[in-house]
Amino acid sequence: MVLTIKKNVEVCVLMKINAENEKKLLLEMLEKLGVNEENAEIVAEATLNADLKGFTSHGLGRFHNYITGIESGNIDPNGEIIIEKETEAIALINGNNNFGQVVAYKSMNMAIEKAKKIGIAAVGTNNSNHFGVTGFYSDLAIKKGIIGFVIANTEPAIAPLGGKEPIIGTNPIAIGIPGDKYIAVDMATSATARGKLLESSRKGEKIPEGLALDGDGNPTTDPDKALKGSILPFGQHKGYSLAFIIEILTGPLVGAAYGKHVTGTATCTKNCNKGDLFVAIDPNKFVGIDEFKKETEKFISELRTSEPKTIVPGDIERMKIDDFRKKGLNIDKSLYKRLSKICDGLDIDINDFIEK
Ligand SMILES: NC(=O)c1ccc[n+]([C@@H]2O[C@H](COP(=O)([O-])OP(=O)(O)OC[C@H]3O[C@@H](n4cnc5c(N)ncnc54)[C@H](O)[C@@H]3O)[C@@H](O)[C@H]2O)c1
């Protein structure tokens, strides 16, 4: 918060929230919004997980979108999640507009249980909503010694290579590998997540060069222009191709919308009918979990002892989690303002949760 003192000198008071208070605040907001305890727990955990891992674009700073979603009727916290088709190896789930987090949590757990029986399973979803960070769901698998693979589509952000009209989503992919330490990758197939543009816009900050184009197809570092334009795919044709394939596996394959027909994942202001695919693989049905972990560790130690010193996927998330647990999450002025407004509307005192 900025306090104005004598001689008009502005003093910044650092505001923070710790993990315990963030979870409490999220649960209280969800309870006041009428979300049942089980679903509130899942949404709160998924949101906290984003902040813990340093993906603040998908944490507390994104939470107002879910409120918009509930208020506009685009998210139905009581929507009945229906199994439309099921075999030993697959399931097709209709999320019925429930929270994307709840649909994803249940679908990934279903894939895990199936994989434990037969080695590999895939669960697809339609009629779902934005689910936050993708890695939260592959983490569910690795906690049970299972490899987790998650992909999803979103409303368009990526234009076809060389074009300017966004037609493909930021289509994230997360893969988690069970191991003694956290091993995972979690990323958008766009050069950056759209959430990071929304976060930069909220803070009034520019975005790095080389990530996005404005509506005329020119490079821009202005997040608002980029949000009206398009985000480049990561790695040019490679990210474009991967985003394209994910759109098909999470659209046509699972009975969800795809391309321009996916709406409202960014702000939950429209019903989106987005889709996801959750795949679980049990290493026990291959070489066995112990052998798999041993060989994976051997490979990682070869990476770690290579010169110059480097990190491996998953290290950043582990470091960010440690950092958050020690220092808490910084609450900038714009986020404080936004949260205060939400809390006032729900008769919650934001200052009960924030340290100044
Ligand atoms: N729900 C949705 O619709 C949706 C859509 C897009 C993105 N997202 C989420 O947005 C978040 C941010 O996505 P992003 O693409 O901007 O992520 P990012 O570019 O910040 O990171 C991508 C991945 O690379 C890893 N990484 C970064 N630097 C590394 C290095 N030097 N060595 C090894 N690994 C490294 C990160 O730990 C992470 O796993 C993700 O959690 C993603 O799931 C969600």
Report on this structure.
The protein has 356 residues and is of the alpha+beta class. It has a single domain, classed as 2-Layer Sandwich (Ribosomal Protein S8, Chain: A, domain 1), CATH 3.30.1370.60. The protein is built from 11 helices and 14 strands. The chain has helices at residues 19-32, 37-52, 63-72, 100-118, 135-142, 194-203, 223-228, 237-249, 289-304, 315-327, 333-345, and strands at 2-5, 9-12, 16-17, 82-86, 90-94, 120-128, 147-152, 173-177, 183-187, 212-213, 219-220, 230-231, 274-281, 329-330. A 7-stranded mixed sheet has the order 4-5-6-13-7-8-9, with helices on both faces. A 3-stranded antiparallel sheet has the order 11-10-12. A hairpin with a 3-residue loop joins strand 1 (2-5) and strand 2 (9-12). Helix 1 (19-32) runs antiparallel to helix 2 and helix 4 runs parallel beside helix 5. It is globular. The termini are close together. Bound molecules: nicotinamide-adenine-dinucleotide. Residues 55, 58, 130-135, 152, 154, 170, 172, 174, 185-188, 192-193, 195-196, 265, 311, 313, 316-317 line the site of nicotinamide-adenine-dinucleotide.
- Strand tally, please? 14
CATH topology: Ribosomal Protein S8, Chain: A, domain 1
**What is the fourth-level CATH superfamily?**
Malate/L-lactate/L-sulpholactate dehydrogenase, NADPH binding domain
Strand order of the largest sheet: 4-5-6-13-7-8-9
Structural class: alpha+beta
